[in-house]
Amino acid sequence: MELHKNFLWGGSTAANQYEGAYLANGKGLSIADVEMGSRHGIPREIHESVKDDKYYPSHEGVDFYHHYKEDIALFAEMGFTCFRLSINWPRIFPKGDEEIPNEEGLAFYDKVFDELISYGIEPIVTLSHYETPLHLVHTYGSWRSRELITFFERFCEVVFKRYKNKVRYWLTFNEINETLNQKQPYHQAGIVFNDLQENQIQTKFTACHNMFVASAKAVIKAHEINPNCKVGCMLQYPTTYPATCKPNDVFAARVHLMPDYYCGDVMCYGYYSNTCTALQKRWGGSLQVSEEDAKILQDGKVDFISFSYYFSSIASLDKNDNLEVKNSNPYLERTDWDWPIDPMGLRIGLNELYDRYQLPLFIVENGLGAIDKIEEDGSIRDDYRIAYLASHIEAMKDAITIDDVDVMGYACWGPIDIVSVGTGEMRKRYGFIYVDKDDEGKGTMKRRKKKSFTWYKKVIRTNGVDTSNKE
Known about the structure:
- One of its GO terms (molecular function) is beta-glucosidase activity.
- Belongs to the glycosyl hydrolase 1 family.
- By secondary structure, the protein is of the alpha/beta class.
- The protein has 15 helices and 13 strands.
- Helix 9 crosses helix 12 (291-299) and helix 13 (343-357) runs parallel beside helix 14 (383-401).
């Protein structure tokens, strides 16, 4: 069976990994601009400010700022009908708390959206994708503070009004659930725990609540400005299996997913469900929701759910009720970065999310990070990437055509090589398009098509019917 004719095909990126031009035309510093690159498997170092003798990958990315016409033309050649990107918040409000936006920043995205639209490519725009203005972190403590709700609402209103005739699909916070899952939710919420006295659990719940309210206000404002637009949440979804059939391990799979459903429930249902209150009890946190906030959450429910899926996990509970999560599933092959390859996990995840929320789903991140080799003839034969993506697209098709899951589209991560957010490396490549840049930031930035470029073009042309790796 074929997918519906309006199914969206494309790819996804984030400004902090892709855009570059980190101080061009009035842009301020974001949290990404003080995060160093690293070597394979080593955590990235975060600084208070930019240091002259250090390398920060976001400063140049792969220079979409100056290559956007070339890159969009390549996306159009593949047949993209959508392209997900983020608006770099400090490019619009350099500090984040100003009242007047930066016109040069707004004008840049006008050009990008116009270029996409000229090729018939639908912009899918993330409002906050790890680019919180650094000033808001230093001055207000980032999303610990309710003041950021006001600043975010102002930012959203400006871009909603400016681009109301160019952008129909918006996402609020990228992988918002990772605010709860990460030890240091720096990317998601601009938070680093330096004070040993700070109640980290309570801070995470507070930051999430402020982001929920901000997201709901964005939904309300977007619908007010353009009733035809759609606003979605964005979750990282870790399909989870019990390590064994022991009842405790079966329950462990639920426990591992609780932080993810915590965010999904509030943003989709518009209230804190029993899953949410149970997680607060389990972690020793609490939250008082005012009547005003409760109404905002209810009025600002999202229209659809977008999510990322890369791999699945397995979970168990020990005799003391401690959760243990592993990725070492003996039934699955693994990537160069030791991530399990599990296309059935995507089908399961699609079913779990749709069963729970009954909202349209949008896969906005799915891909294979690998080390690519340029052959003597200049070709890049990334059959491993084709195999990964083909198997996941087939699993998605089964969820749609057999399981009757409503899926809006598929935008793989990322269609062009960009900086890895986890490590700051370039050698962890995802793209159909190779970019000549290394982990030290050296290279010509020349773009080069990989074998997967032609393959994905065929997939889109056939609306997903032909995913074979035939020349």
